[in-house]
Amino acid sequence: MIPGGGDLRFDRMPPRWVPLRAFLAAPVLGGFGGLMLGIVGGSAAESRYVGELIGALHLVTLGFLTLVMVGAVVQVLPVVTGVPVPGASWVGPASQLGVAGGSLAMAGGLAGRWGPVIGAGGILVGAGLTVFAAAGIVAAWQARRNPTGRAMGLAVVSLVVVATLGVAFLAGHAGWTTLRRDLTDVHLAWALIGWLGLLVMGVSFQVVPMFQVTPQYPQRVQHWIPAAGFLGLVVWTFGRVGRWSPVAAVGAVVAVGAVAIHAGVTLWLQAHRRRKLRDVTTDDWRLGMASVIVAALLVGAAGVGLVDLGRTGPALALGVLVVFGAGVSVVEGMLYKIVPFLSWLHLQNLVSRREAGAAMRIRNMRQLLPASGPRRQFVAHLVAVVTSLVAAVAGGVWVRIAGFALAVDLWWLAWELAGVVRRSNQDRREVLGAS
Amino acid sequence: MAERVLDVSDLEPCEPMERSLAAVDELGPGDHLRILHRREPFPLYEILTERGFAHRTIEGRRTPIEILVWRAGDAEAEAAVADA
Questions:
Q1: Which chain A residue lies closest to B9 (C-alpha atoms)?
Q2: Which positions 318-347 of A are in contact with B (Cβ < 8 Å)?
Q3: Which of A337, A415, A310, A334 is nearest to A373 (CA)?
Q4: How many helices (H) does chain B have, and how many strands (E)?
Q5: CA angle, corner B6, sides to B2 and B8, nearest 5?
Q6: Dist. CA A203–CA A84, nearest whole Å
Q7: pLDDT at residue A88, rounded to an integer
Q8: Across A172-179, average pLDDT
Q9: Quick check: A352 contacting B, CB < 8 Å?
């Protein structure tokens, strides 16, 4: 291990199409979630249990966020720890197919109230995530000495809890079992703090210092904060299910405190960047971490009785802050670095392996992804987050506006990423043609 | 015979690798390049080897990592790097 550095092993990367395919398909799927909200309009936000809202939200959380996060684990875990995900070449595509197909089926089924389609969606998502989780847990266990590997392992264990409850809910919606709505908050907490929060932590330890040229995360943060977040969730769950309020409160403070501390440290590191060049990824991460802190304050306000998260408006606003404000922002920022970087790196390796191509000039990351497009797309993302927050509180026509804004946000992202792949494929053809 | 120094510690990917590859191409007989970096650039190693360069990574004084690069088979450069 190198002092102050990570342990990136790009020579152990899986084939480039394994993560790239998921990274390109994800925003397209997520955009359908926005379109669904735009079409359904205000009735989708009348309660957190409206089928269309659950379906649309899962196109974003499963179709967009989880699809990218599965690709990121398959890609990042072997690169940072040297431990390959077992069967990466088929585990990646199989789990991505299950998640993508399943999220589409469950969204359509929930919107149309078609029990068998909802059930089929649950089976597909469950199968895809089971394949991924089994391989991910084995790899994370082997990589447990690395802070990123440990955080990813805890995130994958959280995903197992989320998926188990989620599939049980879908079976309830399909009419196969009793629908246990009392466990909805447990599903949400493990999804947003466990799966999303812990994975973002693990990835951030590598990508924030590397791509945003910040100082390294303090060792204590890397070692203790993901573990504290996970432990807090376990304690909160026992308190919640066992109806022991003081225990649940302690667990909630620890879990929410862990993600808030990570967000604060990330903002501090960004404020100490060595080169303070304007960069859309840094803006995305700033928006994401600020959203986490506002969400944590909202939970804290609810804890002391200032806000009632049992009401639909504040509950939806909290969800918007965490899913759109934090999750979508961070993942968009990550994609804007990882997709051009992977494309460039594979091109660079190709050039080096071909004698005739060695003299050729390939595009660098900035040329593969010119900054102007992502900068304009970030404005569209800001509009989507703000209108979604207004929609959560005001409902009505704002739900329609927010839905369409979200579709524009994510499809614009897909367009920018497709441009990277198109340009790198042009260079690839030229290199191969020159050999 | 000379040491050239390249500080890429404040650059974001992919500039460190681009500048490093451009700099090694200009190494003459007996020359070596000292790259000052904030983290170990694993992808660079494979590309350097394929392009006919040897390298040695040491703990840095000004930056966390220093990578010494020379043309493989250049005995004079290799001897200079051994003393570095």
A1: A213
A2: 337, 341, 344-345
A3: A415
A4: 3, 4
A5: 165
A6: 16
A7: 78
A8: 87
A9: yes
Contact A175, A187 (CB under 8 A): no
H or E, element range at B58: strand B53-59
Q: Are A96 and A67 in contact (CB under 8 A)?
A: yes
Identify whether the C-beta of residue A255 lies closer than 8 Å to the C-beta of residue A226.
Answer: no
Q: What are the structural domains of chain B?
A: 3-82 (3.30.110.40)
User: CA nearest A320: which of A271, A239, A385?
Assistant: A385
Q: Of A57-61, A154-158, A344-348, which gets the smallest average pLDDT?
A: A344-348
A274 CB near a chain B CB, below 8 Å? yes
From the list A4, A8, A345, the residue facing B38 with the nearest CB is A4
Confidence of residue A30 (pLDDT cuts 50, 70, 90): very high
Please give the Cα distance from B20 to A16 (Å, whole number). Answer: 24
Residue that the structure tokens 């040329």 belong to: A367
Q: Give the pLDDT band (50/70/90) at residue A23.
A: very high
Residues 6+ apart with CB under 8 A from A247: A235, A236, A238, A239
Residue of B12, B24, B37 to mutate, interface with A, max A Cβ within 10 Å: B12
Peptide bond into B14 cis (omega under 30): yes
Establish if A122 touches chain B: CB-CB under 8 angstroms.
no
Secondary structure (DSSP) of A90-130: HHHHHHHHHHHHHHHHHHHHHHHT-HHHHHHHHHHHHHHHH
Q: How far is A12 from chain B (nearest CA, A)?
A: 10
DSSP state of A326: I
What is the rounded CA–CA span in Å between residue A276 and residue A284?
15
Average the pLDDT over A286-307 and give the result. Answer: 96
pLDDT of A3: 34
Task: Indicate the helix (H) or strand (E) that contains A149.
Answer: helix A147-173
Residue contact A274–B42, C-beta within 8 A: no
Residues of B in contact with A209 (CB under 8 A): 38-39
The token pair that represents A198 in the structure block: 């812990």
B51 contact residues in A (CB cutoff 8 A): 352, 358
* A6–chain B Cβ distance below 8 A for any pair: yes
